[in-house]
Specification:
Elements: E1 8-16, E2 19-27, E3 32-40, H1 49-78
Antiparallel strand pairs: 1-2, 2-3
């Protein structure tokens, strides 16, 4: 089955008094999600607006991605999918070390 959709993401930035705020808005045509992020320039650092934009934008998109992942998890659970067991250790399982 072929499925195609277009989701639109808008990224909005504003800088005031050394703080950059970002809003990442996902519109799937049925609902919207909003991620938020901010970055503050250390008063002792040289102010470079592009760096504040990058940090705030990346934080807003990370927030949005987390919301989207949690929504997918809820939808999977509602569809009866069983979540994987939480990872309690790293590396190879003990029974495969033979």
């Amino acid at each position: 089955m072929t499925h195609a959709e277009e989701w639109k993401v808008g990224l909005y930035l504003i800088e005031e008094d050394g703080t950059t705020k970002a809003r990442a808005v996902l519109d799937d045509g049925k609902s919207m999600m909003v991620g938020r992020g901010r970055a503050r320039c250390n008063p002792q650092d040289v102010e470079v607006p592009a760096i504040g934009d990058e940090l705030a934008a990346s934080r807003a998109m990370r927030d949005l991605a987390g919301q989207l992942m949690r929504a997918a998890d809820r939808d999977l659970a509602a569809a009866g999918a069983v979540p994987p067991a939480p990872r309690t250790a790293y590396g190879w399982p003990e029974d495969s070390a033979q």
